[in-house]
Amino acid sequence: MLNQDLIHLLNQRVRLINKKLNESLQEYGLYNAQWSILYYLNNHGAKTQKEIMNYFHVNAPTITRTVKRMEENGWVIRITGADRRERYIELTDMAKKRYLEIEAIVSTHDEEVLSNINEEEKKLLYHLLNKLD
């Protein structure tokens, strides 16, 4: 029973964190999933949809819809790779310019979410979450 309770609580907390982040990002027309892709591309450079899909452990239609919406809203562009069939997803100039502004909003959100956890507990939580498969 403890396993089910623990996973249920983890899922509930993640939903709450995502809901609050969505509220914080609303003024930018972004959702947490889109922010995650912006964060990933900013830190790792242009990636294929397949690389993004594998990194986030989601299926192709989910990434396709999210990237399409981000492209329509001017956050990302698709560029052709060395192989013409290969397309990379890259941040637009607008996304690069606004990234630090959005990151500050996310940092404030993160601080609020973690405000009841001290530094030692954060390190332990980080360690424990990395052990999950």
Automatic annotation (TrEMBL):
User: What keywords are annotated for this sequence in UniProt?
Assistant: DNA-binding, Transcription, Transcription regulation
Q: What start-end ranges are recorded for coiled-coil regions in this protein?
A: none
Q: Which InterPro entries match?
A: HTH_MarR-typ, WH-like_DNA-bd_sf, WH_DNA-bd_sf
Give the GO molecular function terms. Answer: DNA binding; DNA-binding transcription factor activity
> Residue limits of the HTH marR-type domain?
3-133
* PROSITE patterns hit by this protein: HTH_MARR_2 (PS50995)
Please give the SUPFAM superfamilies that the UniProt record associates with this protein.
Winged helix' DNA-binding domain
Q: What is this protein called?
A: HTH-type transcriptional regulator YwoH
Q: Which organism is it from?
A: Ornithinibacillus halotolerans
| Gene of this entry | ywoH
